[in-house]
Design goal:
By secondary structure, this protein is α/β, with parallel strands linked by helices. The chain has a single domain, classed as TIM Barrel, CATH 3.20.20. The chain is built from 10 helices and 8 strands. An 8-stranded parallel beta barrel has the order 1-2-3-4-5-6-7-8, surrounded by 6 helices. Helix 2 links the parallel strand 2 and strand 3. The protein is globular. The model has no long low-confidence stretch (mean pLDDT 97). The protein binds 1,3-dihydroxyacetonephosphate. The site of 1,3-dihydroxyacetonephosphate (13P) has 14 residues, from strand 8. 1,3-dihydroxyacetonephosphate binds next to strand 8.
Length: 251
């Protein structure tokens, strides 16, 4: 069986000002430095204005930094957008793309997400491409079909296990406290694993993260599910104790 190192990613979303972000990031970097060898890689994705100061605060630690979005364009007259090169300039190795909140709040579709991922790859970033069904789609028995469509549309040509991570985040489980059962997660992750064949080079080595109300009390159970290669954590990533407890539940 392929062994894939777990990735525990914190998506801070639109939370925290500079002092909060610096305190959280420094705390996590300190824990990671003191932990020695770990069974996981740890990533934080703060809001854009915090990237440079947080990068300084975690310099020299193994804590990785990522953005929460990037533009498909490299530079120019695109007010409010952030280019992939601006993320790498700020010390990012990762970027989250196609999060359901961006799909819903900003009308982002699969083609745009694929273009963003291609631009991120061109800049050497690892794209974390998010997919997941809504509650009504799940109730209608369409979870796998929705995820298949999103994967087909949002993974760009040139995606490899080294430059692309998939995050399965059922929309109904995000920020609701409702977590998918390990059996739901096992089934969708197995489906995603099969679907990645032919879309991602070295598909068997690609990481598939689960996201949606991951917390210390359910992390060990979820992280032990086959084809779950880590977590994309929202609310619980804003508390160092909780985020660390989730990470250290990885075996
Ligand atoms: P919660 O962990 O707050 O449910 O958020 C999940 C998420 O959307 C991470 O990207």
């Amino acid at each position: 069986m392929t062994t894939r190192r777990k990735l525990i990613a914190g998506n801070w979303k639109m939370n925290g000002l500079k002092a909060d972000g610096l305190a959280l990031a420094s705390d996590l970097a300190g824990r990671l430095n003191g932990a020695g060898a770990t069974a996981f890689d740890l990533l934080i994705c703060p809001p854009f204005p915090l990237l440079f100061p947080v990068a300084d605060a975690i310099a020299g630690s193994a804590l990785a930094l990522g953005g929460q979005d990037c533009a498909a364009k490299t530079s120019g007259a695109h007010t409010g957008d952030v280019a992939p090169a601006m993320l790498t300039d700020a010390g990012c190795r990762y970027v989250i793309l196609g999060h359901s909140e961006r799909r819903a709040d900003h009308g982002e579709g699969d083609a745009l997400i694929a273009a963003k991922a291609a631009a991120a790859h061109a800049q050497g970033l690892i794209a974390i491409i998010c997919v997941g069904e809504t509650e009504s789609q799940r109730d209608a028995g369409q979870a796998n079909a929705v995820v298949s469509g999103q994967l087909a549309g949002s993974i760009p040509t040139g995606a490899t296990a080294a430059n692309t991570v998939i995050a399965y985040e059922p929309v109904w489980a995000i920020g609701t406290g409702k977590t998918a059962t390990p059996e739901d997660v096992r089934a969708v992750h197995a489906h995603i694993r099969a679907e990645l064949e032919g879309k991602i080079v070295d598909a068997g080595a690609a990481k598939i993260l689960y996201g949606g109300s991951v917390k210390p009390s359910n992390a060990a159970e979820l992280m032990a599910v086959e084809n779950v290669d880590g977590a994309l954590v929202g609310g619980a990533s804003l508390k160092a104790d909780d985020f660390w407890a989730i990470a250290t539940s990885c075996r």
